[in-house]
Write a structure and sequence with these properties.
Elements: H1 5-12, E1 26-28, H2 38-41, E2 46-47, E3 54-57, H3 58-64, E4 72-79, E5 82-91, E6 94-95, E7 115-118, E8 125-127, H4 129-137
Parallel strand pairs: 1-4, 6-7
Antiparallel strand pairs: 2-3, 3-5, 4-5, 7-8
Length: about 150
């Protein structure tokens, strides 16, 4: 990301400021060492970002946006000032996800949401089995970590 990187990260990752919403534009960049791998990377539906911002494909966006509309907002991204079919996801839903040792609660009930971020540490998020099920239903290319 370039330019207003801190404003974007404050909003998406740390949930600190709504200043991003005044001019909601995300301009991504990548290291040239990834140029050869770019088309392979873009064949998936979730893109790893060192910034911690959740980035998804147009395919993901088109299939999932209405399902997640109560829990997430999506923002179209640019890469090196060129419009591209990548969407950043802002997780609106907050929940107490962590125990006293800052691990995901073992008894966390995930039946009532698709995706949520922690109330105190908003850069930590979980997806529910419902989320995994819709990813599988639409045959989206994503990997999940167990907790």
């Amino acid at each position: 990301m370039k330019g207003k990187q801190e404003i974007v990260i404050d909003y998406f990752k740390f949930d600190l400021s709504n200043q991003f919403l005044k001019n909601p534009r995300i301009n991504l960049d990548y290291n040239n060492i990834f140029s050869d791998q770019l088309s392979e990377i873009l064949e998936t539906d979730f893109y790893y970002s060192s910034s911690g911002i959740l980035l998804f494909s147009k395919r993901f966006f088109n299939k999932i946006k209405e399902i997640l509309e109560d829990e997430c907002d999506f923002y179209k991204c640019y890469v090196r000032n060129e419009e591209i079919d990548i969407y950043a996801m802002y997780i609106k839903r907050k929940n107490n996800l962590l125990d006293e040792d800052d691990f995901i609660k073992k008894d966390l009930v995930t039946d009532d949401f698709f995706i949520a971020r922690d109330t105190d540490k908003p850069y930590i998020y979980v997806v529910s089995q419902k989320f995994v099920d819709i990813i599988n239903k639409f045959k989206l290319k994503m990997n999940f970590l167990e907790y």
